[in-house]
C-alpha cells in the first residue's frame, strides 16, 4: 500500500471532516500518499483528485459539512461510469479508497471492489439508518441540534399555550425523532416505523389541558408526512392553536459534537490500518463502544431493527 484516496458522498454529516483529518494524518504517519476526491463519485469519474498533506486538514475538526464537498452521481450507477472511476484511480496510482457516507455510498464502494479497488467504508449519515452499527457519524450532532430547537420552541409554545409539531429528518428511519422525543420530553413521537392515530393524539392533548398542561410537543419524522395536515386537524378538534415547524437541513450543519469527532477520528484511523493490512470490502461500525469492521456485503444485508424498548419508554414517561 503506497497511496490511498478519500471521498465523501451522499448527504453531508457533521464529523465527516474529523474523519477526513484522521484518514489523512494516519496515512501520512505511515508514509502513504493521500489524495482527496472532490464531489464524491462524480469527482472520481471526472478526475477531481488532489494530493493532501497535514496542512490540508488543519483547523477542520470542528467544522461541519465536508471540505471535499459531496454530490450525487447518476453516471456512477452505470457499469461504464464505475469502470471509468476505477481507471482514474489506477492512473493516479492509488491502491486503496476510503469512502464516507450512507447506504448509497457503501453500495458504490461494493461495486468498485468488484472491479479490484480496495475499499473501506465509514458510516457518515445523520439518520443513523445503517443497522449494522449502533451509531453513524453525524447522528449525535444532528440530535443535539434538534434538542436545541425543541428547547427554544418550548419557551414560545408554553407562553402561548400552543401545540407544537416539530418535523425532523428521517425518511425511513425514525431514530432522530425517537431519541429527540425522549431527550426533549415530547408528549408524542411519530415515526415511520409506527405511524399514528389522530383521534388518540387529540384526546390526549385535551386530557393534558384539563390536567393543567400549558403546551404539548409532538416530534414527527419526515418520512411519515402530513405535518401541516396533522396541525390543522389538532387545531380543528381541540381548539388549541397548533403550529408545525420543519427543521429541514439545519440538522445537517453545525460543529460536530465531541462524540462525533471522536467516533470519526477512531474510524478514520482504523480505515487506514485495515488498508495497510491488505483488507478490503470492509465497513466500520461501533458496537458497545468498540470500533469493529465487517464485510460490506454482510453489512448491507443486515435487516433494520426497531428499538421497541425506547419507544415504550417514550410513551410511558410522556404522560
Automatic annotation (TrEMBL):
Amino-acid positions noted as binding ATP in the UniProt annotation, renumbered to this chain: 11, 72-73, 102-105
Reactions that this protein is recorded to catalyse: beta-D-fructose 6-phosphate + ATP = beta-D-fructose 1,6-bisphosphate + ADP + H(+)
Active site feature: 127
Keywords recorded for this protein, A-Z: Allosteric enzyme, ATP-binding, Cytoplasm, Glycolysis, Kinase, Magnesium, Metal-binding, Nucleotide-binding, Transferase
All residue ranges annotated as the Phosphofructokinase domain in the record: 4-275
InterPro entries, per database record: ATP_PFK (IPR022953), ATP_PFK_prok-type (IPR012003), PFKA_ATP_prok (IPR012828), Phosphofructokinase_CS (IPR015912), Phosphofructokinase_dom (IPR000023), PKF_sf (IPR035966)
Activity regulation behaviour: Allosterically activated by ADP and other diphosphonucleosides, and allosterically inhibited by phosphoenolpyruvate.
Superkingdom of source: Bacteria
Binding positions for substrate per the UniProt entry: 125-127, 162, 169-171, 222, 243, 249-252
Binding site for ADP: 21-25, 154, 185-187, 211, 213-215
Cofactor: Mg(2+)
Positions bound to Mg(2+): 103
Pathways involved: Carbohydrate degradation; glycolysis; D-glyceraldehyde 3-phosphate and glycerone phosphate from D-glucose: step 3/4
A molecular-function term among this protein's GO annotations: identical protein binding
Keyword Translocase part of the UniProt annotation: no
GO CC aspect terms: 6-phosphofructokinase complex
Subcellular location: Cytoplasm
Gene Ontology biological process terms, A to Z: canonical glycolysis; fructose 1,6-bisphosphate metabolic process; fructose 6-phosphate metabolic process
EC number(s) given by UniProt: 2.7.1.11
Leading EC class: transferase
Predominant location: cytoplasm
Chain's role: Catalyzes the phosphorylation of D-fructose 6-phosphate to fructose 1,6-bisphosphate by ATP, the first committing step of glycolysis.
Subunit: Homotetramer.
Family affiliation: Belongs to the phosphofructokinase type A (PFKA) family. ATP-dependent PFK group I subfamily. Prokaryotic clade 'B1' sub-subfamily.
PANTHER family registered for this protein in UniProt: ATP-DEPENDENT 6-PHOSPHOFRUCTOKINASE, PHOSPHOFRUCTOKINASE
Protein name in UniProt: ATP-dependent 6-phosphofructokinase
Record lineage: Bacteria, Bacillati, Bacillota, Clostridia, Eubacteriales
Gene: pfkA
Amino acid at each position: 500500500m503506497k497511496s490511498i484516496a478519500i471521498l465523501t458522498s451522499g448527504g453531508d454529516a457533521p464529523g465527516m471532516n474529523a474523519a477526513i483529518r484522521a484518514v489523512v494524518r494516519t496515512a501520512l504517519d505511515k508514509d502513504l500518499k493521500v489524495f482527496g476526491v472532490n464531489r464524491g463519485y462524480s469527482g472520481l469519474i471526472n478526475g477531481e483528485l488532489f494530493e493532501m498533506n497535514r496542512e490540508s486538514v488543519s483547523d477542520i475538526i470542528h467544522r461541519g459539512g465536508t471540505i471535499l464537498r459531496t454530490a450525487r452521481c447518476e453516471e456512477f450507477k452505470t457499469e461504464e461510469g464505475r469502470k471509468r472511476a476505477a481507471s482514474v484511480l489506477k492512473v493516479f496510482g492509488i491502491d486503496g479508497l476510503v469512502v464516507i457516507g450512507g447506504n448509497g455510498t457503501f453500495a458504490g464502494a461494493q461495486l468498485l471492489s468488484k472491479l479490484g479497488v480496495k475499499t473501506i467504508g465509514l458510516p457518515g449519515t445523520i439518520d443513523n439508518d445503517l443497522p449494522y452499527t449502533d451509531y453513524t457519524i453525524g447522528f449525535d450532532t444532528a440530535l443535539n441540534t434538534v434538542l436545541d430547537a425543541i428547547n427554544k420552541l418550548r419557551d414560545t409554545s408554553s407562553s402561548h399555550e400552543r401545540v407544537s409539531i416539530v418535523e425532523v429528518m428521517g425518511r425511513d428511519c425514525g431514530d432522530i425523532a425517537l431519541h429527540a422525543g425522549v431527550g426533549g420530553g415530547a408528549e408524542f413521537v411519530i415515526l415511520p416505523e409506527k405511524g399514528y392515530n389522530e383521534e388518540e393524539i387529540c384526546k390526549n392533548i385535551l386530557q393534558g389541558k384539563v390536567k393543567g398542561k400549558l403546551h404539548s410537543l409532538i416530534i414527527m419524522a419526515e418520512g411519515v408526512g402530513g405535518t401541516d395536515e396533522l396541525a390543522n386537524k389538532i387545531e380543528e378538534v381541540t381548539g388549541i392553536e397548533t403550529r408545525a415547524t420543519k427543521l429541514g437541513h439545519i440538522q445537517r450543519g453545525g460543529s460536530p459534537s465531541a462524540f462525533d469527532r471522536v467516533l470519526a477520528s477512531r474510524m478514520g484511523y482504523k480505515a487506514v490500518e485495515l488498508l495497510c493490512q491488505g483488507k478490503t470490502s470492509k465497513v466500520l461500525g461501533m458496537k458497545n463502544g468498540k470500533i469493529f469492521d465487517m464485510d460490506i456485503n454482510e453489512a448491507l444485508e443486515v435487516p433494520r431493527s426497531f428499538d421497541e424498548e425506547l419507544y415504550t419508554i417514550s410513551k410511558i414517561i410522556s404522560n
